[in-house]
Design a protein that fits this description.
Order of helices and strands: HHHEEEEEEEEHH
Radius of gyration: 25 Å
Structural class: alpha+beta
Low-confidence stretches: none
Strand content: 15-25%
Number of helices: 5
Shape: rod-shaped
Helix content: 40-55%
Mean pLDDT: 80
């Protein structure tokens, strides 16, 4: 067999010309490009973190995404999730079954539970004891709780990997858009 070899040459003059052009740009334009690039990569990282969080909790992405916030600066990445326990009725595929109970596509079956309408809306309820008396509303998982249990820091790591990988290219892209 014959060996195939390829030679790659990189012309560094193009990079030098770009870096000189960037250095000559007014600070206002550079700031605008950095702001746009930061915003784009922040949203991109937030999407991936929210997808991972949705997978982790078993909740749909559409439920988790509005509750997640990602703040980035040059020194730090901060992921916040503002959420309480999600009412079971808000999860996809919640329905009453023929044999007493409620079934949810994401969480399974709840025997002796029922769906009721109250003044503050609908909910899935279950009795506390044998008596007719107090009832409890049932809830699904809490995305903020899942983030707190992230002992390995995989959400932070995921966000920082995306930002490190994409930020520089995005800054160049935004500068080219402005110019």
């Amino acid at each position: 067999g014959q060996g195939v070899s390829a030679q790659i040459t990189i012309d560094a003059s193009d990079y030098l010309a770009k870096s000189r052009a960037i250095a000559r740009l007014p600070a206002e334009i550079k700031a605008k490009a950095f702001r746009r690039a930061f915003g784009h990569t922040r949203r991109k990282a937030l999407t991936q973190v929210s997808r991972k969080l949705a997978e982790y909790t078993g909740l749909p992405y559409r439920v988790v995404r509005p509750k997640a916030h990602l703040g980035i600066s040059l020194e730090d990445i901060e992921i916040r999730v503002k959420s309480g326990w999600i009412p079971l009725i808000d999860l996809a595929g919640v329905r009453a079954t023929k044999r007493k109970g409620v079934y949810t596509r994401t969480r399974g079956s709840y025997r002796a539970a029922w769906i009721a309408s109250m003044q503050r809306g609908r909910g899935v309820f279950v009795r506390e004891g044998k008596e007719r008396g107090p009832v409890d509303e049932l809830f699904g998982p809490n995305p903020a709780h899942a983030l707190g249990e992230d002992r390995q820091g995989e959400f932070d790591r995921l966000a920082s990997e995306i930002i490190e990988r994409d930020l520089a290219d995005r800054v160049i892209h935004e500068l080219n858009r402005i110019l």
